[in-house]
Design brief:
Elements lengths: L1 E5 L10 H4 L11 H10 L4 E5 L5 H13 L3 E6 L6 H11 L5 E5 L14 H12 L4 E3 L4 H13 L5 E3 L5 H7 L3 H8 L5 E5 L14 H15 L4 E3 L12 H15 L2 H16 L4
Parallel strand pairs: 1-2, 2-3, 3-4, 4-5, 5-6, 6-7, 7-8
Length: 280
């Protein structure tokens, strides 16, 4: 089983702009040693670290941690997508690092919902496609959906994954059209979706259950099918909705209710291997 979505951050080693404004549980440091034994308890053999800062420094930090921990199958790194020349240079270095398996940018932190539509960013995404690096999308607004649709249509060789099933609760708060837009994106074979971060996609972070997230997962299965879905725990962000086990148990209660064990293995093992390119 592969957890396709974990973060780590050590604010003494790397600067995280968004964490400077954060109080409460997420303001603490979270290193891999905190989550490693918990993964083992849940029989999660491998995991993927996902960027949480738009900096090369954070990518380097994750890479060092990944190289020291066999449990980490790969990392989702960052690139300066607004500078395609620089992106092309750095990606040559990334190609030499087997642990770097995809790219992401925190687009939900950008004031411009159409940030991805900049000419230089689109050139950089073409470079990702040419070099077989998937791109992860953390979307929660209508403008993000429109960008993803444009990219899927115009760069069909670029693999895309919608983190957190496109944040249904927060997307719905913004537009009220999450399901129709999410299903629309499923028509593109190069778009995948990640069942992750759903515990925080409910109105009440304290009093929620598997039933609250079941409609999102059911829609994802109907729209994308099991061969374009993967799963991730979204730790430590998911701590806002309870510990790792609580979030894990809720997701797998739903999956066991809706799918066979073979289908669940597809989502938790086979699909990530196919999408990221044999990470095990």
């Amino acid at each position: 089983m592969i957890d396709c979505h974990l973060h780590i951050w050590d604010q003494e080693k790397v600067e995280y702009e968004w964490l400077k404004k954060t109080k409460g549980i997420l303001s603490e440091n979270y290193v891999f040693e905190n989550i490693s034994p918990i993964l083992a308890q849940q029989k999660v053999e491998k995991c993927i670290l996902v960027q949480a800062a738009n900096t090369i420094e954070e990518t380097q930090y994750m890479l060092e941690v990944a190289k020291a921990n066999p449990q980490i199958a790969g990392i989702v790194a960052w690139l300066p997508l607004t500078n395609s020349v620089y992106t092309a240079k750095i990606i040559e270095k990334y190609k030499l690092e087997s642990k770097i398996i995809a790219i992401r940018h925190l687009i939900h932190d950008e004031a411009d919902e159409k940030w991805l539509m900049q000419a230089e960013v689109l050139k950089s995404l073409e470079i990702l496609a040419q070099n077989n690096f998937p791109f992860e999308i953390v979307a929660n607004k209508k403008g993000h959906y429109e960008c993803v649709k444009h990219i899927a249509q115009n760069i069909p060789t670029l693999k895309l994954v919608l983190d957190h099933l496109m944040n249904p609760y927060y997307y719905g708060q913004n537009t009220g059209t999450w399901e129709s837009d999410f299903r629309d994106l499923a028509q593109f074979p190069n778009i995948y979706a990640k069942i992750s971060g759903l515990g925080i996609n409910v109105p009440d972070l304290e009093n929620w259950s598997a039933e609250n997230i079941k409609p999102y997962i059911k829609t994802a299965i109907e729209a994308f099918g099991i061969k374009r879905l993967c799963w991730g725990g979204d730790w430590p962000v998911a701590l806002l909705a309870g510990d790792y086990k609580r979030n894990f148990d809720a997701v797998f209660f739903v999956l066991n209710d809706l799918l066979s064990s073979d289908d669940i293995n597809q989502i938790t093992n086979l699909t990530p291997n196919e999408f990221y390119g044999k990470v095990l």
